[in-house]
Amino acid sequence: MKPDKIDELYFSDVNEPISLDRRDFLKKLGGGIIVVFCLGKLSLLDGWGQNKSDDALNFNAYIRVKEDGRINCYTGKIEMGQGIITSLAQVVADELGVPIDIVDMVMGDTKLCPYDAGTWGSLTTRFADPVLRAAAAEAREILFDLASTKLGVSEASLKLDNGVIYDAENPSNKATYAELTKGKKIVKNLEKKPDIKKAAEFKLIGKPIISTDAIAKVTGTAMYSGDIKLPGMVYATVVRPKIVGSKKLSVNASQLESFSGVELINDGDLVAVVHSDPEISLKAAKKVKVTWDAPEQKMDNETIFKYLEENISDNNTFQEGGSLEEGNTTSKSVLKAQYQDGYKAHAPMETHAATCYFEDDKLTIWTSTQTPFGTQDQLAKALEIPKENVHVKQIFLGGGFGGKIYNQQAIEATIIAKSCKKPVQLVWSRREEFMYDKFRPAAVMNVTSGVDENGKLNLWEFDIYCAGTRGTKLFYDVPNNRTRMFNERNIHPFGTGAWRAPGNNSTTFARESHIDVTAFKAGIDPLEFRLKNLKSDNMVAALKLGAETFGWNRKKKEGHGFGIALGEDAGTSVVMIAEVHVDKKTGIVTPIKVVCSQDMGQVVNPNGAAVQTEGGITMGLGYALYEEVMFNGGSVKSRNFSNYTITKFSNTPEIECVFIDKMDSKPQGGGEPAIICVGGAIANAVFDACGARVPRMPITPERILKALDNT
Amino acid sequence: MKQSISFKLNSKNVTVEVQGDESLLTVIRTYLDETGTKYGCGLGDCGACTVLVDNEVTRSCMTVIEDVADKEVITIEGIGTSEELHPIQEAFVKTDALQCGFCTPGMIMNAYGLLLKNPNPNRNEIITAMEANLCRCGSYGRIIEAIEKASKQLSKTL
Prior knowledge:
The structure holds 2 protein chains of 2 kinds. Chain A is an alpha+beta fold. Chain A has a 7-stranded mixed β-sheet. In chain A, strands 14-22-21-20-15-29 form a 6-stranded mixed β-sheet, with helices on both faces. In chain A, strand 24 (about 570-580) and strand 25 (about 590-600) form a beta hairpin. The longest helix of chain A has 28 residues, at about 125-150. The two termini of chain A are about 50 Å apart. In chain A, about 55% of the residues are buried. Chain B has 2 domains: about 5-80, Ubiquitin-like (UB roll) (Roll), CATH 3.10.20; about 85-155, DNA polymerase, domain 1. Helices cover about 35% and strands about 15% of the residues of chain B. Chain B has helices spanning about 25-30, 85-95, 105-115, 125-130, 140-155; strands at about 5-10, 10-20, 50-55, 55-60, 70-75. Chain B has a 5-stranded mixed β-sheet with strand order 2-1-5-3-4, sandwiched between helices. In chain B, strand 3 and strand 4 form a beta hairpin. In chain B, helix 2 (about 85-95) crosses helix 5 (about 140-155). At the A-B interface, helix 5 and helix 15 of A face helix 2, helix 3, helix 4 and helix 5 of B.
């Protein structure tokens, strides 16, 4: 799938599995029991029904019980810190009745794994997980069938314990998975929904499991794309313009002569040098003088909001109900406000990296990507070679957050490798990372709300610029409403794209800020106001749990404030309640405590879900309080962590995560949802603490002081 | 002009032929193939490259190799192995104090340096010592907890 297409999907709610394509794996596989499962269109939502036209080669998840009894689980998803290497193994192990440590996860390898559109949208646990569970359950049924024949006992009398099937009457009559699988090759395409375990039978699902990759990561043995070293490899440094979007006019490489062994690559707008020593490559690149034609600088980080509003008229109505006119005339009070959110960088700790080599016209690459199969397509196209000749290998990612779906570094590395005919490693500098980040877009939200004399919402008009509609389906009951989305491609001065729960961070901040503004005007407590106006039972239950956990009615210390924000993302209902301290003299905000209550359906790994939630909150405090890309047109002034501040140790509050207990239901998203509520909860807590309503993120001390001056 | 520079890396004597102004990070990652130490920013702003030089917490990306001559460097590879984890590594695992893992070696080395100097740091001392190490995944809370656990474990074994 093309990055553009992913972007488009990413900014809206994705509630079905992504399409598949036909691939031929089975011939290459060794022995054992192999269960393939086609994630056909809507198969899961339709209760696991299969598309009749599917055949054994059309699938996108599979499990193999090997002849040594170990389990291989193949998935096109990748591990970037979100913990699916653990949670997917966990569900497979539970269904197969084996310990988790005998499950080996093979992830994101385009040769070994079935096609997958990409790891984004908090889709893995929602869609890959049920499929793998079903495949594992099917493998278990096959093993029981084999055991019944081998042990001469009916299946009904067989029991399973830790990968051993035995006769319940005579436990010494038993067979291990390894014994049952030896010398066999059984390939089965799942055609009907097998009996998957019920919550009461779970041994691993729902239990807190520590990340299975933790030991590799604490010992420094976990491999990332920049850790691969190939014989004869050279290190590439790309010569960059100062302004994003510049076109190359001319190259003067005369000063390269003083470096022996340096090679220049000059291909279209890509200018780079390579050398077997990365330090020499870096020094040499500085000596290459490129003249660039830079695009006009039309706006900066202050004027951008007006620019977006004035220059985008294209819009479509996402939802509508009642009549805005009616809402305007019948509301007791009508409140209008504009909310703004600046550009944010993904800033993963690992910059974009790729290591690759050619063998004839066959390419092998390790690259930090959330879309290995997308990378395969992009590279085949860029290099004009067949897709089958591109092999993207499994590798850990040092963070992704939606920023690693575009694969520019992979394209650059392979063009360089093709040109210099040597294995190449390209690791972007932090400066490059900040230029080509595909930032979370700046956004403007215009909101008009109306409330009747009983404190019931009567009007909600929501115009969204550049933040999409993901998560904006109204869960408040408002008879007169309209939500419009204004967007235009290429309006931004540099690349923008998907950033952890795209758009939903900006729109949730705007909606939840304005809900508090409206409640304040109506003279109603923010918790009570929400309970009065919510229409979603799931949200009400999560809000009650959150408020109770937080202790909403407890006494506040001097200078402290509490704030609530609600949101929906990836099928999960999120409630966040924050406590902050605001120093009224300096405007400095100290996050004290954050409670997050979520209804995410079945929680597969409560430990992993808590880690993701804590991570989302911690990262989210950055966009709420500190992060803003400074720029003038395509000249990005935020170049490193010294002038792009993210959350640090000292800003991390006490965090408590609670989940609604729904073990028999379908799992929902976990990687993204929690982060969407941080901005709104902080904005509302800041207001509660000091009376400053800051309608623009990040909520900086200067903006707080300015808001205080205006009150 | 290349020169020979010798130093101790994880208890082994090593010698490299270098100009002298190469970063310690390049030397350990590229010339000596110890890739556990990571490049995060190249300016000492993130801590992913943290190692110990003569038991002092050091940003290897900002240290030129000349300044390391005859000194002792300890990296993540030098404090424990998968079979025998150092108590700090073990505490990180047990607390699940990591996500993508890219900042983890730097975090552990900074914690290692802290506990060498101050075996029983309080929460604020941990935060102050660790403050300049960044984790984008947001595992700070668990990292503090892991360091507290490791500190307790280490004082028990002493």
